[in-house]
Amino acid sequence: MAASIPGYRLGDPTLPKSAVSLRDLADLMGSLLFGAGDIAALRRAHDVVKDQIEAILDVWYGFVAGTPHLLVYFSDPATRQPVGPYLDAVRKRFGQWILDTCRADYDEAWLAWQDEIGRRHHRTAKNKTDGVSASAQIPMRHVLALAVPISITMKPFLAKTGASAEDVEEMHAAWTKAVLLHAILWSRPYATDGDF
Length: 196
Hints:
By secondary structure, the chain is mainly α.
């Protein structure tokens, strides 16, 4: 675990086991056309983006900061002002998430962490990790919709280190599938039992 990142829990054995089985995960990955070649492309992407994390986060945070209907989810409902310490803590975890996405093992520990991230977007656990007073929930529509900007904006970073156009396309396709996989799994707390 990245112990230096408050609230980071990938690999934490105390996290509850996910209700999503490894078979369910394999089926979902199959529906996304996400296979071994994509995992290999993500491993290559790790080496391309690992030194660009802050620049990537600057783009993503700039997008959120410039989109008032998104910034509200990181703001105090009483003052309507962004909660700086919350944005800072989330940024550290978001940076680690980029690296984790490129190196994911897709095992039970990874699934348990995805469940936890989903809860942190949902009213059942939002704000609890950081002990802040921000909007009580990020609506599922935005959890899913943000897969697009998080995917599209990665492509220029994948191309920055001189990879071939074909390799950039492969890494970007794999990244896009991985981001959508995460968004789908994070939406589980929003679904009623039996509907996910």
